TrEMBL record:
The chain crosses the membrane at residues 90-111. This is Sporulation protein YqfD. It comes from Desulfuribacillus alkaliarsenatis. Pfam families: YqfD. Keywords: Membrane, Transmembrane, Transmembrane helix. InterPro entries: YqfD (IPR010690). It comes from the Bacteria.
């Protein structure tokens, strides 16, 4: 049974539907002619379907004509028909085979080297640069043929030996076309922080104390108290024999005033909605443009944005990229701000100006002290109250405390 099926698949077979009034006569003639039929099924009173070998097809057609029946080929089986289809689609087959060969060839190279720390954390740039340099010494870089690379154990041992003073452990793994290096840097003991000498914490600017916490030392001010620049906030002086570096947190409310000007009429660039795409097929340092060079002439002004799509398949990544440059057409428009919008933008500009100058903790309030619209522009004067750290360290000067004692007397 199986050998018969294989024979028919090798020689070719067809599924045929026959209709006519002399079906029984035709079947008898086919039987006498030695034509084998299988899968015979009666579909109606004057119609049957069956499968036959393609080698008997010519004699079959002659007998059908003699009986006046009609037939339709429903399906074709076997290698002869497959070969015929492939001959019609040889370009597709050649392209498919070339694609498979291309994928296989590209998969034999390393196209991406990723260096990470423990648990996938990124390494500092200097660590990554050091490891890449060592890999290049071993002849390993993007584009290296995997068959020419040293064994995994050799690479790991070489890296560990060369970098043993900087790393606790270095491992590697090859995933498709990616070489993954996992390195755990040696955590060196941090150098001692700045050695604090006997000192006070004093105010850097005029402020009202918002919060004070004295960790080491004596608090000389309290919340709500106004202080001047240089005034002692937390003292490290207990006596002539006992002096320590004062430690603590002192936050103060500080005032800043800033003035800004903003024109009511502004020129801005806006998008028209028109866009043109330029495609570039990039293979490492080689680029193939896939666009007409003169298309950009259709856009007078434009803004360019680029997206990159990499060719990858499962765990395989290849040095083939599609660069899509999108050019958005722009036009220049003049806009006019009304009073409320201009006022809001001016206040925002003023506060941004303060933010660039001061590293504050919290904003207490913003007050517009003055604003005026004149000669096509708005002028705003803003007062901002913010909370910030107002401390700085100052060496203990015993004279400060002698003067205080004299004043107390």
């Amino acid at each position: 049974m199986i050998s018969s099926w294989l024979k028919n698949m090798f020689l070719g077979a067809i599924s045929v539907q026959i209709s006519g009034k002399l079906l029984s006569t035709l079947l008898n003639q086919l039987n006498r002619a030695g034509i084998s039929l299988w899968n015979v099924t009666k579909t109606s009173e004057e119609s049957i379907t069956f499968t036959m070998s393609i080698k008997d097809f010519k004699e079959f057609t002659n007998l059908v004509k003699k009986t006046g029946c009609k037939f339709t080929i429903k399906r074709k089986y076997g290698l002869p028909f497959l070969n015929w289809r492939l001959q019609k689609r040889y370009m597709f087959l050649a392209g498919f085979l070339f694609f498979l060969l291309f994928i296989w060839t590209m998969s034999q190279f390393i196209w991406d080297i990723e260096i990470t720390g423990h648990d996938g954390k990124y390494l500092a740039y200097e660590h990554e640069r050091t490891i890449r340099s060592e890999l290049q010494e071993l002849g390993i870089k993007e584009g290296s043929w995997k068959r020419k690379m040293p064994e995994k154990d050799i690479i790991q041992n070489q890296l560990r030996e060369q970098l043993q003073n900087d790393y606790i452990w270095i491992g590697m793994e090859i995933k498709g076309t990616q070489l993954l290096i996992i390195a755990v840097p040696l955590t060196k003991p941090k150098e001692d922080e700045e050695i604090l000498i006997e000192s006070d914490l004093v105010a850097t600017k005029r402020a009202i104390i918002h919060r004070i916490l004295a960790y080491d030392g004596i608090a000389y001010v309290k919340e709500g108290q106004r202080v001047e620049p240089g005034q002692i906030l937390i003292s490290g002086f207990f006596s002539k024999e006992k002096k320590i570096p004062a430690k603590g947190v002192v936050e103060g409310i500080v005032w800043y005033t800033v003035e800004v000007e903003l024109p009511l009429e502004r020129t801005v660039e806006t998008y028209t909605g028109e866009a043109i795409n330029k495609y570039n097929f990039v293979l490492r340092d080689w680029s193939l443009p896939l666009y007409l060079p003169n298309r950009l002439q259709e856009l007078e002004n434009h803004d360019k944005r680029t997206s990159i799509k990499k060719l990858s398949w499962r765990s395989l990544s290849f040095p083939v990229e599609l660069h899509v440059d999108t050019y958005y057409e722009t036009k220049t428009e003049t806009i006019f701000l009304n009073e409320d919008a201009a006022k809001d933008q001016a206040v925002e500009m003023a506060f941004d100006k303060i933010s660039k100058q001061v590293d504050f903790i919290e904003v207490v309030s913003q007050t517009i002290m003055h604003y005026n619209i004149d000669d096509g522009k708005i002028e705003v004067k803003l007062l901002a109250e913010v909370i910030e750290d107002i401390t700085m360290r100052k060496l203990i000067d015993e004279k400060d405390y002698i003067d205080d004692e004299d004043n107390d007397e």
